[in-house]
Write a structure and sequence with these properties.
There is one protein chain. With 409 residues, the protein is of the alpha/beta class. Helices cover 47% and strands 9% of the residues. Strands 1-2-3-4-5-6-7-8 form an eight-stranded parallel β-sheet. GO terms for molecular function: hydrolase activity. It holds the Pfam family Amidohydro_2. This is Amidohydrolase 2.
C-alpha cells in the first residue's frame, strides 16, 4: 500500500478504537471447540468447507502467516491452523491483540455457547486500557426468564394468562435493572434471526397470550427455550426500546450478514423504518454494515436522528474490494457522526486482529481517494476516521473516555 497522506495514515492506522460490538474469546481449554473456518465465513455445515476458496480466506491466511512470522512460501490456510495450534494460548491472544489499538470493547455475551466455552466480558480488560462493557442480548434475557418460570411453577401450574403476566413483569424488571447498570453499555436484539426485522408496532393482550401459550406448549423444566413466535418477539423488543429510550442506552440490531438461520429478505433494515419512527428517543444501531443492504441502512442513518450505522463484520468476511465498496456505500449518504466501527470479533483472537487491520486499511484507502479527488481535505478525512473509530461510539454509549493516543506507541 502506498502512503500518500501522512496525517490521514497516522489517524487511520494509529488512532485508538472503540469496538462497539464483539463477542468473547474462547477459553484456553476450548480453543478448538469450533471449526477455524468460522473466522472467515458465516457458512455452516458442508457449506463452510467451501470458504477456504474465497478471496477473504486467501487474504486472511497471508496476513496471519505474516503475523506469525511464517515464510511466505510456506503460508496456506492449513499451515496457519497448524502454526496457531502450536502457540501457547496466552501468547496467541497477545500476538493478535497487541497491534489492534482497541481501547475499549463492548461485548455481547449472549452468543450461544458463551457460558460453556468462553471467557467473561471483564476478562478481556487485559487487552485494553479502558474497561470492557456489556451489551445485553434481549432474546437471551427473555429465554432465561421463561425457563426460570417454567422451573418455578412446575409443581403448581398457573394459567397461561397469569404465567404470561409474571413473565412480562420479570422481563421488564430485568431489562430495567440492566439499563441502570453502569457495566451495561446497551442492548442487542437478534429479531433478524428469529422472525425478521419487520417488527410490529403493537398487538392485543389476547395475541400476546396466544403467542405465549404457543411458545410454552410442551415445555418442561430443564428444557432450553428458543423464542420464535413473532408476536412475542416483537412485543419484547418494544419493551426494550421503551426502557432503553428512557435510560439512554442504545439498542443494537443484527441486520444483513448472518448465517443461513436468517431469512435474507427480512434482514434489510428498510423493514425497520416504522419502528425507528415510533421510538424517536431510542438510539438504534444497525449492525454489520447491513450487508448486502448497506445503502438501505445509510438512508436510515441519514434521515433519522436516532439511527446509526455500524460498519463491522465485513472484516474479514468480504474481499478487500468488497470492503472498500461497503465503506464507500456507508459514506455515500450517512453523516460521518452517525457511523460506528466494530470487529464483531468472536471466539478466536484472530477475528479481532483481522477486523482491525483490514478496516483500518480500507478506511485509509477510501478516504485517501476522496482527498486525492479533492472531495475532502485531509483534515476532514482525519476527523472522519476519528469519529468512526472512537468519537461516535464514545458519545452515543456515554462511555466518557479520552482517547489513549499512546496505545499503539
Amino acid at each position: 500500500m502506498t502512503i500518500t497522506y501522512e496525517s490521514l495514515a497516522l489517524a487511520a492506522f494509529y488512532y485508538p478504537a472503540i469496538d462497539n460490538h464483539a463477542h468473547p474469546f474462547l477459553t484456553a481449554s476450548q480453543r478448538s471447540a469450533f471449526d477455524f473456518e468460522g473466522l472467515i465465513s458465516e457458512a455452516q455445515g458442508d457449506a463452510l468447507k467451501d470458504s477456504v476458496y474465497t478471496l477473504a480466506c486467501f487474504r486472511a491466511a497471508a496476513e496471519l502467516g505474516n503475523l506469525y512470522g511464517m515464510e511466505e512460501d510456506d503460508v496456506s490456510w492449513e499451515a496457519v491452523k497448524e502454526k496457531r495450534a502450536s502457540l501457547d494460548y496466552d501468547e496467541l491472544c497477545a500476538i493478535n491483540m497487541k497491534p489492534t489499538g482497541i481501547q475499549c470493547i463492548l461485548i455481547d455475551d449472549g452468543l450461544g455457547g458463551v457460558n460453556e466455552l468462553a471467557e467473561s466480558y471483564s476478562w478481556h480488560d487485559r487487552f485494553t486500557t479502558s474497561p470492557t462493557k456489556r451489551i445485553v442480548r434481549v432474546e437471551v434475557v427473555a429465554q432465561n426468564t421463561l425457563e426460570q418460570l417454567v422451573e418455578q411453577y412446575n409443581a403448581s401450574p398457573l394459567s397461561t394468562d397469569v404465567l404470561c403476566d409474571a413473565f412480562s413483569s420479570r422481563f421488564f424488571e430485568s431489562i430495567k435493572a440492566s439499563a441502570k447498570d453502569p457495566e451495561v453499555a446497551g442492548f442487542k436484539s437478534v429479531a433478524c434471526y428469529r422472525t425478521g426485522l419487520d417488527i410490529s408496532l403493537n398487538c392485543t393482550s389476547e395475541e400476546i397470550q396466544n403467542a405465549f401459550a404457543e411458545a410454552t406448549d410442551g415445555v418442561r423444566p430443564g428444557d432450553k427455550i428458543r423464542l420464535s413466535t413473532k408476536v412475542l418477539n416483537d412485543y419484547l423488543v418494544r419493551i426494550v426500546l421503551e426502557i432503553a429510550g428512557q435510560y439512554k442506552k442504545p439498542v443494537q440490531f443484527h441486520t444483513g450478514l448472518g448465517d443461513n438461520d436468517i431469512k435474507l429478505v427480512k434482514s434489510s433494515p428498510a423493514h425497520m423504518q416504522p419502528i425507528i419512527e415510533a421510538y424517536p428517543d431510542t438510539t438504534f444501531v444497525l449492525l454489520h454494515s447491513s450487508y448486502p443492504y448497506t445503502q438501505d441502512a445509510g438512508y436510515l442513518a441519514a434521515v433519522y436522528k436516532n439511527a446509526y450505522l455500524d460498519f463491522g463484520e465485513i472484516f474479514p468476511f468480504l474481499s478487500g474490494d468488497g470492503q472498500r465498496a461497503v465503506i464507500r456505500q456507508v459514506l455515500e449518504l450517512s453523516p460521518a457522526n452517525k457511523i460506528l466501527w466494530s470487529t464483531d470479533g468472536h471466539w478466536w483472537p484472530e477475528s479481532f486482529y483481522l477486523g482491525v487491520k483490514q478496516s483500518r486499511e480500507a478506511l485509509y484507502e477510501v478516504l485517501a481517494e476522496s482527498v486525492r479527488r479533492e472531495e475532502l481535505t485531509e483534515t476532514q478525512a482525519v476527523a472522519i476516521v476519528q469519529m468512526a473509530l472512537f468519537e461516535n461510539s464514545n458519545r452515543i454509549y456515554g462511555l466518557g473516555l479520552q482517547p489513549n493516543l499512546s496505545i499503539l506507541g
